[in-house]
Amino acid sequence: MLPKIPPPHRDDVLLAVASVLAGLLLWSLGVHSNNSRHFLPVWAVLVPLGVLGSLELVRRTMPRLTLAVGTAGLIADQFTVGSIATVVIFTDLMYAAVVYGKPAMARRLPVSTGLITLVATIAALAWLRTPQALLIGVVTGVVSFAPALTGATLRNHREAAEAARLRAEQTALLAEMDRTQAVAAERARMARELHDMVANHLSAIAIHSTAALSIDSSATSREALGVIRENSVQGLAEMRRLIGLLREAGAGREPVAVPSLGGLEALVAQARTNGAASGLDFVLLDEREEGPPLPAPVELAAYRIVQESLTNALKHAAPGTVSVRLARGRGDGRLTVGVDSPHGDRPGPRAPGSGAGLIGMRERTELLDGTFTAGPAGTVWQVRASLPAEERAVRE
Hints:
The chain is an alpha+beta fold. It folds into 2 domains: 10-171, no CATH class; 257-396, 2-Layer Sandwich (Heat Shock Protein 90), CATH 3.30.565. 62% of the residues lie in helices and 10% in strands. The protein has a 5-stranded mixed sheet, covered by helices on one side. Helix 4 (84-100) packs antiparallel against helix 5 and helix 5 (103-128) runs antiparallel to helix 6 (134-214). The chain is rod-shaped and about 130 Å long. Residues 392-396 have low confidence and may be disordered.
């Protein structure tokens, strides 16, 4: 099945009609280009004119065919009285072949027509041996090389403009992808912060409220209500701090201080108060040696890992001692965080867990190019995190 040929462009139709009419007008006026060296009747000049004029209709869709047939028509025109309109039409066909043809043909035509012009000029000088022979080379260049070069220049400009447009679209797409990833990363960071700040207090509230409901004792209820009130106030303060950070992020205000390892003692003391009713005790073992200060992201990650580990201990640990251990290597200075809590059956109320805490701890560690493990080891649930100690190791 032959491929369907699209209809000619409106401009090409107008160009074909105007070219043929101009040629007919010149013929009727007796304006010819080869009056002294024609071999055919005067009317024969209309045949190449009509053929090349009709080729204007398909100059965009079949540039290779139009150039081949147009070249044959131009040669045939040299055996007639000649028409300037036919020569002009051929120059347009040469131009269209470069602009609308395949890239290989568009690259070859300026080079080949340039060589043809050079060869024609040298041959004419060698044959005629007069300065007027240069006119043959000039005419050849005007008819073939000039339109090919013009078409190549226009095509290069179009391709450069298209490449610039594609680069702009690609840049916009990459920018949108970066924005989407930045929003997703910020949402994940906010989710971790919200979980780590509030989960500890809400877990204590859930445990003590369940104990107050299940144990019919005024002393127990009063103690539970005290713990609930303390954790409610602290959780509300943490929520307000997070909301303040979100509201003031774009206002150019001074950032609020983030938690650091210096606040671990208070954190462990609070966990000790919250876990007393469940038979839990909490101890902090800081085995770090003196060294350069840790980057703020590392201290924040370590603090949140300890905070979440204590929250999980309040939810799930069996009665016993929960130990928090900090150590720092002498060689690379990496910070090691370890939390050990009793693992086994636990009497009394337990708060439900979703697993988001372990995911958040792992994400915090991996964002800093650290390592994280969590799982049971006999009767102990172990949490281990190894964090870098140099600013250059911290991802943005």
